[in-house]
Request: fold
Amino acid sequence: MEMAAQSIEGGFADPVFNAQTVFRAVMDAMARPGSVQPLPAFARPPVPLSATAGAVALALCDNDTPLWLDPALQASAAIRSWLGFHTGAPLANTPADAHFALIATPAEMMALDGFSQGTQDYPDRSTTLILLVRDLVSGAPLLLEGPGIETSATIAPAQMPRHFVEQWKQNIKRFPRGVDIILATAEGVACLPRTTRIKTMEA
Amino acid sequence: MTAQPTDIATYNFAYLDEQTKRMIRRAILKGIAIPGYQVPFASREMPMPYGWGTGGVQVTASIIGPDDVLKVIDQGADDTTNAVSIRAFFKKVANVAVTTETAKATIIQTRHRIPEYPLTAGQVLVYQVPIPEPLRFLEPRETETRKMHALEEYGLMHVKLYEDIARHGRIATTYAYPVKVEGRYVMDPSPTPKFDNPKMHRSPALQLFGAGREKRIYAVPPFTEVVSLDFEDHPFEVQTFDQPCALCAAENVYLDEVILDDHGGHMFVCSDTDHCEKRREEGHRGHLAPETHVAPGNMEPAQ
Reply:
């Protein structure tokens, strides 16, 4: 069957080293928020899941990590079975159960506080959001400060969630609880951990 | 990256299986996102006893790739048992390049020292941690210390430092000196001498901490505030030495005392062997340095 072939193909060609390369890119991006870590297209998932976001999911998700898909991805049986075959990750029933969330259309996504925020005792039990964005230069510029940033950094991700800056302020106020964001573009990954403070740039 | 220049099997590259690495990698990402918070992880049994760096080894094994250059130090030295055996372990299971030179390493696994040579962006410092919980000797119950971290209730730690002052006239803690990370979590910097605490503050390198027996991973991202706890009238101070290194005459470095005979003879030498060797190669000589300097080419590198 065509669909079966589609869900089996497009995984890591070299699982051990591809996963390590992807993880190091994500680790460096998380440690240096605002920096863009280049990533070759290791994975070929079905559209609309992008190669970068697919590779991040393959590197980090497995049967221990409930995965939440936004409606655009959830609607695609090909994507559900591709992720199922390659990661073994169960789909989360609600966003609050998810360890990772894949979001193909961030501009239409639900509020950040709908995802798991962790608890005050265990702030690590929160959802990590993987946002598919077109690029990191054409959106509203965000001036970043905080751990991992020497003075300040700037990124301008396109198609970000509505009222993102305001939502992110609330996310910071919840610290140490809160969500972390991995931005996946064709060029690579950039991260916004919950410690990063965003200042919108004055025009 | 497809054709690896190695004849070792890759399914368990760097000893750990892929599922274990993913679990540790997720813990590392959470640790970086919550600086100073101890992330629980499912520590595996390693082919070495607890206390020999099983936490650090698992962190290193999860981040290391074929292009990395690894340096391992044990109390600053590249040539002591723990450092040599962990370096040999990764050479065998990951076939990676190893070095003793701080500047050339991409990953430095350390047991209780930070190299004297300044670290740079892109380097990762992996600490082997015996007791990750700074409050453990004050409150033995994990349920309680977890609540104390959750509520940011660190008064007990200040009482401990105050008791030091009441008893000794100064803060007598010299290693595992507690720090506050980014104004939130109190963290054990692992039993490094407090001499190294200022190097953690806004370091350009990423710092990862692994505690194997206690099953905790935590992290300090680059350029993060790491402040040693103190009092206004008893500010934090590092150790000072009244003499330079006896071999390379270095000042303002951490020195080890070496006993020379049973008549009280002793000398102070650099704890960081790479730093000391480099300085002697450059021609710096302390008062106890050997008369004829061995040419660097003839020296056996630490293996």
In short: Chain B is about 25% helix and 15% strand.
